[in-house]
Write a structure and sequence with these properties.
By secondary structure, the protein is mainly alpha-helical. The chain folds into 2 domains: 64 residues, Orthogonal Bundle (Arc Repressor Mutant, subunit A); 122 residues, Tetracycline Repressor, domain 2, CATH 1.10.357. It starts with 24 loop residues before the first helix and ends in an 11-residue tail after the last helix. It comes from Nocardiopsis changdeensis. This is TetR/AcrR family transcriptional regulator. Keywords: DNA-binding, Transcription, Transcription regulation.
C-alpha cells in the first residue's frame, strides 16, 4: 500500500505543536500547503524551514520529506495550488467588468497570507535569482502572469480587441498602478479607483476607451 501522503507520525516538539489528527492524501497536502504559506508570510522565505512547516501543519517532518526535498519546494507548490485565476466572461461581453474584477482579485491577494508570502518570495528573489526563476516558471507564468493578462488575451482571441495591443506593457499597467497606489496610500485601492484605472488607462491603451470622444 502506497502511504507516501499519509500523516503517520506526531511532531517531535511536544506541547508546542498543534494537535495532530490522522490525515492522508489531499487533506494532508492541503494542511502542509497552508502551513508553508503562513510560515512564509510570518517569517519570510529566509525563515522557512521543514521544522516550522511541520509544526504549523501538525505533522511530522517525515510526511514532508516523502514528497518535497526543500521548504521552498513546498512553498512554490502551495502557491501554485492557491494562486487565484482570472475568469473572464465566456462570451467576452464585459471587458470593463472583467478587468475591474481581475484588479479586485489582485487587491484581495495582496492583503492575504498568500500575497504576503508572494511578496516574501519576491524580496528573497533579489538575493536568489534561482528562486525568482522558479517562481516565474512554476507559479506566476502557469497561473496567468500579470493580472488582467488573461482577460485581455481572452478578448483578443475572441476578436473584441486588437491582439497587437496586448503587450507586456499593456498587461502590466493595471498591476503597476494598483501596487503604486498601495505604496503611496498604505492601503489597497477601492473598487471605484480600480474602475478609474480601467477606464482611464487600460481600456484606452488597448483601443477600447469607454469615454466619449472630445470634439474640438
Amino acid at each position: 500500500m502506497d502511504n507516501r501522503n499519509e500523516d503517520s507520525a506526531a511532531p517531535s516538539d511536544g506541547e508546542s505543536s498543534p494537535r495532530r489528527t490522522r490525515r492522508r492524501g489531499e487533506q494532508l497536502v492541503g494542511a502542509i500547503h497552508e502551513a508553508a504559506i503562513l510560515e512564509a508570510a510570518d517569517n519570510g522565505v529566509g525563515g522557512l524551514s521543514m521544522e516550522g512547516i511541520a509544526r504549523r501543519a501538525g505533522t511530522a517532518k517525515t510526511s514532508l520529506y516523502r514528497r518535497w526535498s526543500l521548504p521552498t519546494d513546498i512553498l512554490l507548490d502551495a502557491m501554485y495550488s492557491h494562486f487565484p485565476q482570472e475568469r473572464p466572461a465566456p462570451g467576452a461581453d464585459d471587458l470593463r467588468g472583467d478587468l475591474i474584477d481581475s484588479l479586485a482579485m489582485l487587491t484581495e491577494l495582496s492583503s492575504s497570507p498568500l500575497g504576503q508570502a508572494m511578496f516574501a518570495v519576491i524580496a528573497e528573489s533579489l538575493r536568489d535569482p534561482v528562486l525568482h526563476e522558479r517562481f516565474d516558471d512554476e507559479v506566476f507564468g502557469p497561473r496567468g502572469g500579470r493580472f488582467t493578462r488573461t482577460v485581455l488575451m481572452h478578448y483578443a482571441e475572441q476578436g473584441r480587441i486588437d491582439p497587437a495591443r496586448v503587450t507586456d506593457v499593456t498587461t502590466d499597467i493595471g498591476e503597476a498602478m494598483v501596487l503604486k497606489y498601495s505604496i503611496d496610500h498604505g492601503r489597497a485601492p477601492d473598487r471605484d479607483h480600480l474602475a478609474q484605472v480601467v477606464d482611464e488607462v487600460i481600456l484606452p491603451a488597448v483601443g477600447a476607451d469607454p469615454r466619449p470622444s472630445r470634439t474640438p
